[in-house]
Specification:
The chain has about 170 residues and is an all-alpha fold. It contains 8 helices and no strands.
Length: about 170
């Protein structure tokens, strides 16, 4: 385990209790984890981050297993092991399998993924590596998921690229 490059918030340090309670409410164990403790260095950032992640994690209509698949793929592409370790059990709980998770650590999508999962992997790979996503991928997702869930898939990729880049840059 690495040491974060900035001092994380510690129990007993000053913090807005409403913000701390909101972060705790989002976490399955009810306690802030490493990224939360670093974010708490900036209350405005921690507040906005938490609100965004609540929406992505709890309010999107895109299937949770698809969102977790995206999160794992982003984590692998960006070498964000902390993120991988947080989302691996969540992916399994959402219906993913250990075999599929292992395949997400491979350079190209394996045949075990269905059409939608394969498209989500293509979306994630293209957006994470190149920013630009081929129109054919978006059109194929829209055909299978509709506009709303396509937007949510793109937003999940974008949000978790933000997460992984923060984690990696600050060695969390």
């Amino acid at each position: 385990m690495t040491t974060p490059r900035v001092t994380p918030w510690q129990d007993g340090d000053p913090v807005d209790p409403d913000l701390l309670n909101a972060i705790k409410a989002r976490r399955p164990g009810g306690e802030p984890i490493g990224i939360d403790r670093v974010l708490l260095n900036s209350a405005p950032l921690a507040t906005g981050w938490n609100e965004l992640m609540v929406r992505v994690r709890q309010e999107f209509s895109l299937n949770l297993a698809y969102r977790e698949l995206i999160m794992l793929r982003v984590a692998w592409l960006n070498n964000a092991e902390f993120e991988w370790n947080v989302h691996y059990p969540a992916y399994l709980d959402a219906g993913g399998t250990a075999e599929k998770a292992a395949a997400l650590r491979q350079p190209s999508a394996a045949a075990m993924f269905d059409d939608i999962e394969s498209l989500l992997i293509q979306l994630t790979d293209q957006s994470t590596r190149n920013v630009t996503v081929e129109e054919a991928v978006i059109l194929a997702l829209k055909k299978r998921l509709g506009d709303k869930e396509t937007v949510e898939a793109v937003a999940t990729v974008a949000a978790y690229n933000m997460v992984s880049r923060f984690l990696v840059a600050l060695a969390i």
